């Protein structure tokens, strides 16, 4: 009997081994205690964190290059303008955007699924437009297609990338409009920016369309792009294309004091870095003090080494020059010659100040610029003023009547002088937010005039792009080289002029 039992046991074990041996290795690698399915709401949260440009990361690299701060100690970096490659990291985010749509579809045809898919179009437009703005031509039409056997995607023309982004945004606005008509109170889970408010997402969609259209200003004569008509369609029809009108509409990262992983990036000791190592830059600060702008008192801390002047409360707000030698800036900083970040304002607690990614102030400046350029009819002066007011309100400041009466501030009309005012005030308002937008707007317009001095290691030039990542030459060499050849004659440097700027 024992012999029969043993034979039965051996047969059972052998059968189990044979069954296991037939299982796919992928099945064996799965952890039965962990879900291998990502929910749409978790994917949306992760994508939103990925798209967030932290204005204070990397010691505020983007803000140094936009001449808001000046580093005075080379351990942390410099203002050499000798930067190198851009980043394709957003393709990781785009893979998650694809997954968001897949997981949303699994929920069936309903408003929740439609919400996720409409927002996914915004996320695509955001990611692709950012990479194209940074480098030029990029893979799009065949990107994220490894599952279809496309491992080496060809590059799409920068023009085609922006056309596709505008098309996605148009589709997103239309889809969100249809959803809201069915249920005005519909929401979406996992949204860290608007707490699920689809109406605010729709405003963000159209605000991004305006940002892209303005970025294409040098191409206003391109009949295929039809920039003027698209811009006019948006600003002249708020029912079809609602836009951000108040700071409560801002797409922004809001920090909190309860979760340390989401504290304000400089809290609690980071502010010391800006006081000791990064004084405010004269390029930005001089624009405010020249017109006695009340935002100065909120944003900046006066230079400790400059005495009070009862007749001029702005006298102690002096900035360092980006082009000066770092050791000179450091010596002057130690002497208290420069204003710095106002810790009492920015670091009042762990929640700090929100970081705008796309805001109402910028939207009104974009409207004003388009009207100034003749792309639409309307009140450019009113939009210009509203942009300043919203920026001041964001920082908790109020401009007095004397400020508005100054010739430098009062709108000078739909002409070159008025355009310069709009661009200047947009630059002022970008402080502390919006990633590289201040640099991109300077690159497009030359406003304001950037300081260039002996610290510049780029032949006295401000770069106009980022080169392609070295990893792309390793992984997709044939296609990146073809893109570089077609755009720049084989060069891939920070000074090559992309289609967008020609």
TrEMBL record:
Give the residue range of the signal peptide: 1-25
InterPro entries reported in the protein's UniProt record: SusD-like_2 (IPR041662), TPR-like_helical_dom_sf (IPR011990)
What are the record keywords, sorted? Lipoprotein, Signal
What is this protein identified as?
SusD/RagB family nutrient-binding outer membrane lipoprotein
